[in-house]
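Take a look at the protein record below with the fold in mind.
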Amino acid sequence: MNEVNRTLFIPLYGKASVSKKKIILSDPDAERIWEAEGFPVRGKSASKWLAYNMAMRARVFDDWTDRMLEETPDALVLHVGCGLDSRCRRVTRPYRLWLDCDFPDVLDVRKKYFAETEHYRMQALDAADPDQVRALPQSDAAIVVLEGLSMYLTQDQLRGFFAVLQEKYAKLHILMDVYTGFGAKASKYRNPINDVGVTEVYGIDDSGAVLEGLKIRFVREHSFTPDALVNELKPADRAVFKALFTGKSYGKIYKLLELSS
């Protein structure tokens, strides 16, 4: 597994460790998979504050996916860059078809823990390859989950990915986390992905530039750290977490954007 693919273990560790605490996110699959596949973590990756942040991010994506499924129950769900995430089991709303997509070596590991069914499938996908994106299943609408993916694509690659999606799907709901330009530069020095060897990521300062000429539009920015989830932390942890992961400074580094067409 290459360096970029190994970054999947950072959120997996975070979700597993927080799930064990019985707060924020219930994810027994992450606990089980980490027990089998995990390795000693070091540096920033081992931080309990980062673990809280990873669990909250996952929960925000989960809750958004449930809302989109309630609005568009027949939509195809595309979780691109799924890693070893168990969102397909954590969401509460039923779905017609859920497709978890990632590189083949990631799916080889994933298939040890997830079995395909009538409503759940896995498909190898490089989001930077338009032909592979065109090979995704047809549907009138698609709910597209891009968690921890955009920063590994150039703006041209991300724009190309969106262009093919809008060709295939008349209605799109998209949620993606992005680094800002400043965040991408700062990540060379302060990002836990450095612990697994990743040194180059990309940022977005203007989503309008990425979406120019497309029918996909910016809807709104979401919080990674809703008060309801932050308040599940113990008071002492809550104070430190707020200082690290909330406020204007964090927003200058990392954003969560909802798009639609």
